[in-house]
Amino acid sequence: MRERLVIRWPYRPGQNASWALTDAQGRLQGGVYRGELEQCAASGAGRQVVVLVPAAEVLLTRASVPTRNRHRLLQAIPYALEEQLADDVATLHFALGPETADGGIAVAVVARAQMSMWLDRLQEAGVRPDLLVPDTLGLPLADNEWSLLVDGDDAILRTAATQGGYAEATHLSLMLEAALREAGDHPPQRLRVDVVAATGSPVTPDGLEVVRSEVATGLEVLAVGLDETPAIDLLQGSFSRHEQIGRMWRPWRTVAALAAAWVVLESGLAGYDIWRLKSAIATQEQQIGQLFRSALPEVQRMVDPRAQMEQKLRALRGGGQSGGALALLAGVGEILQEDATTRLNAASFRGGRLDLDLELKDIQALDRIKQQASQRLKTEAEIVSAATQGDKVAGRLRVGGGS
What we know:
Layout: E1 4-8, E2 17-22, E3 28-35, E4 48-53, E5 59-63, H1 70-80, E6 92-99, E7 105-111, H2 112-125, E8 131-134, E9 145-151, E10 154-160, E11 163-168, H3 172-183, E12 190-196, E13 209-215, H4 219-225, H5 241-249, H6 253-266, E14 273-276, H7 284-295, H8 305-318, H9 323-337, E15 343-350, E16 353-360, H10 363-377, E17 381-389, E18 392-399
Parallel strand pairs: 1-4, 4-8, 9-12, 12-13
Antiparallel strand pairs: 1-2, 2-3, 5-7, 6-7, 9-10, 10-11, 14-15, 15-16, 16-18, 17-18
């Protein structure tokens, strides 16, 4: 197991986050700290960063779907669970876990807006999570034992590797009774109960061996109880780390492509392809560095790629070299940046004309860019080709050559 920074998200507005460090054996290093997220960001360097989010916001359930193909599961599960959910499935994020003992698939369900809020706040604080896990799954798990944590007004229960729930402490008995009914003929032998100091003693069902202990904070239980590989990570699909990195970089792909085109023109290499947005590197963090060095090879140190590329584009727009070619590149760049759904895949400049290979949401977007290029740049613009690829349109636009 890697050393970890484990952060627990607060349950209520105005409460501080808490965090702790664990060593390679999963033992606490030092104590549990509280404060703003910015205060713990530096502690994540060289460690796996795990963020535990409130179980109150995440439904742990399971679905029975007659397929094990992941793509088909992602399509089918929202509708398999639709009757259990109060919200429109289109507004929800579904994270898949392992197969359950009864042959179903473990699923965690959370509002997409809630996921965006968590990730936006973490990014703002400089925290880059490797895992986003419902805090229920941080409770320790043992054979024939359930685990319960009562922390002030909140109680979380773990009944299996991927199952558990949340209740306000005043409704704890109802949650336990419901869990026992669901267990049917297979109730646990023991109930482990960890109670945060200053919390009243919870009422537990009769007939179970109860092992109680008092702890200073909930996180000291959760950080140590967290599995080496948590059963369900919420960072899947459109919220995966790969997708988050791509989302941060996507608005600047056009800028980088045009800056690279300018460098090629300046070196007298017009007539060759000046940009391809297909990288063979393993991660998109490496892609950022590669794009930067390709666009600005004369810059020896990459400090703030966004600011440095903006500076180069300002120079491009203001300089007089390369005449109409530079003006054409700058003008097209402004038009493309206005549409966040359009992606520039390649560009080439020949004979006073700029060819752009674009990925767009529909043919109307391609036609709109053509019209804007013609009107605003006072030049000819034509659609050379357009083809539907899945839910996108791949199009080639030719700009220039007119008066």
